[in-house]
Amino acid sequence: MMMMMLSFFLSFFFQAPGTWRWMLGVAAIPAMVQFVLMLLLPESPRWLYRKRRVEEAEAILRKIYPTNEVEYEIRALKESVEAEIEEGGSSEKINIGKLLKTKTVRRGLVAGVGLQVFQQFVGINTVMYYSPTIVQLAGFASNQTALALSLVTSGLNALGSIVSIYLIDRTGRRRLLIVSLCGVVLSLGLLSTVFHKTTSSSPAIGRQETARFGGYTCPAYDSAGSGSSSWDCMKCLTASSPDCGFCAASADKLNPGACLISNSTVRDLCHGESRLWYTRGCPSRYGWLALIGLALYIIFFSPGMGTVPWIVNSEIYPLRFRGVCGGIAATANWISNLIVAQSFLSLTEAIGTSWTFLIFGVISVVALVFVIACVPETKGLPIEEVEKMLEHRALRFRLWKKGNDDERKNSSA
């Protein structure tokens, strides 16, 4: 999260020819640091145990765990590895069929993979990757302004991750997820409403304003004839062959403006008359509400859905299956990330920004139902109790748990 915020800072402050090359080049620095640190990373104690290098494994565990816990961890690891050997293999050799035949693993995968998929499908990385674009769609024309305002969302995301450290063991994983998703649903509802208002109340196209720029009038606007009287900024921006842009009125950007061909020459002409030039979104009096919606989205998402899916995935699987199950969940997360990131701009062009955020909102409601029904509370439970809980667990629509005692009662029921 901190690295993402740093990347936004670099994007904002790098103002020189070839900026994109500098931004890509700077990314090599943390990669090199990580490479050096990886050389110092100790080997997995589990792998060492599997290779009969018991003393090395125990030495690493003694560095990681407090003195009063290390003997328990050594014993638990030894028992888990022996159980794997008795079953005829290690986690690396386990196939998908075997995983799905094991009830506890199957239920754990449903919860773990489901959380990772929903983490992406509620739209977080569209907000993080495309926040400057979203800011422009909300009516802020300047690239500099869009980048500056996107720093707010990245900063809130980093701050929310820190807040999660404080809340995760006080509120529990499940409760934090539920509160997070409720806030995400409300935020996406606000964003959808704001962008609907922005689209439906965009400034009109003025024929006299457009005529001021001579031969640079948008061809689609010219060919519309008498129908051009109904044109507004949004219709101008959706014109194509060639693409067109909106040059706002100089006195008030909400007054009728000009619909012109979109290129650097026309942009400079527009700016030369102290006007704002729009190619993504239109001037709107509701733009600041969109920023509030984005901020609320990050504030609610980051402490809950931003961090809890990774924590649950580290706790929910039986120890002998944790490696392969964690890999499956992480793969599901990145595939979902790819789908959402690649489809966002296409969706906004095809159905509009308002409907796109509404779709994310509906998915968030589905995610909330999924958490209530399928995700158990793992707070404070040793792995053995989590395994027993998954063995006996049925779908239950319960919002709150009184504590770990309730989970133990439920798991033995």
Question: What does this 3D model show about the protein?
Answer:
This protein is mainly alpha-helical and 413 residues long. It folds into 2 domains: 102-196 and 286-412, Up-down Bundle (Growth Hormone, Chain: A); 207-278, no CATH class. Helices cover 68% and strands 2% of the residues. The chain is built from 22 helices and 3 strands. It has helices at residues 2-13, 19-26, 28-39, 45-50, 54-64, 67-86, 96-101, 103-121, 124-129, 131-137, 143-171, 173-200, 207-211, 219-223, 233-237, 264-272, 287-301, 308-315, 322-351, 353-374, 383-392, 404-412, and strands at 244-247, 258-261, 277-278. Strands 2-1-3 form a 3-stranded antiparallel β-sheet. Helix 11 packs parallel to helix 17 (287-301). It is elongated. The two termini are 41 Å apart.
Reconstruct the topology from this structure.
Layout: H1 2-13, H2 19-26, H3 28-39, H4 45-50, H5 54-64, H6 67-86, H7 96-101, H8 103-121, H9 124-129, H10 131-137, H11 143-171, H12 173-200, H13 207-211, H14 219-223, H15 233-237, E1 244-247, E2 258-261, H16 264-272, E3 277-278, H17 287-301, H18 308-315, H19 322-351, H20 353-374, H21 383-392, H22 404-412
Antiparallel strand pairs: 1-2, 1-3
Helix pairs in contact: 1-11, 5-6, 8-18, 8-19, 8-20, 8-21, 10-11, 11-12, 11-17, 12-17, 12-20, 19-20, 21-22
